[in-house]
Amino acid sequence: MPPVPSDPDSVAAANDPVALLPHRPPFRFVDRVARLEPGHSIEARYRVTGQEPFLAGHFPGNPVFPGVLQLEALAQTGAIAVLSDERYAGKLPLFGGVESVRFRRLVRPGDELVLLVELERLSARGGWGRGRALVGDERCCEGRLLFALG
């Protein structure tokens, strides 16, 4: 049986990997983790409730979850996969860039994003991951994510 962490943050992260993120509402775009292979891959979820403050001004009367925040949700999802690997515990994953990004479907209040990230390369300084956001079986956003570790 693995040792029980004594640090309250470690205990929280062991029970809920989302707690590994330094982000807090209203700028956390991961609700829960469905599957996690530390340092390799992750599947997470985020439900767009319609109560997000920025939706009031993003196409008023026709709210759309912004594509850049879909990318942020993918980056946060990838950060959980990185931070859950004990080699990178306590690091700060920062966005370094994106490649080959495509937005394919509007995301609206009530939609649940399925966030999938496969880490391609990890080093002490950062790495690359490939992410996809889906609603049901429909692709919403996809691209390659570069991150640096601070």
Write the layout of secondary structure elements.
Elements: H1 8-15, E1 32-37, E2 41-47, H2 67-83, E3 93-103, E4 112-122, E5 126-135, E6 138-149
Antiparallel strand pairs: 1-2, 2-4, 3-6, 4-5, 5-6
The dominant shape is globular
Counted by DSSP, the helix tally is 2
* CATH architecture annotation name: Roll
CATH superfamily: Hotdog Thioesterase
CATH class: Alpha Beta
Structural class per helix/strand content?
Answer: alpha+beta
Q: Which range best describes the helical content: under 10%, 10-25%, 25-40%, 40-55%, 55-70% or over 70%? A: 10-25%
Molecular structure report:
The radius of gyration is 15 Å and the shape is globular. By secondary structure, the chain is of the alpha+beta class. The protein contains two helices and six strands. The chain has a single domain (24-149), classed as Hotdog Thioesterase (Thiol Ester Dehydrase, Chain A). It has a six-stranded antiparallel β-sheet, covered by helices on one side.
In short:
With 150 residues, the chain is of the alpha+beta class. It has one domain (24-149): Hotdog Thioesterase (Thiol Ester Dehydrase, Chain A, Roll), CATH 3.10.129. It has two helices and six strands; from the N terminus they run H-E-E-H-E-E-E-E.
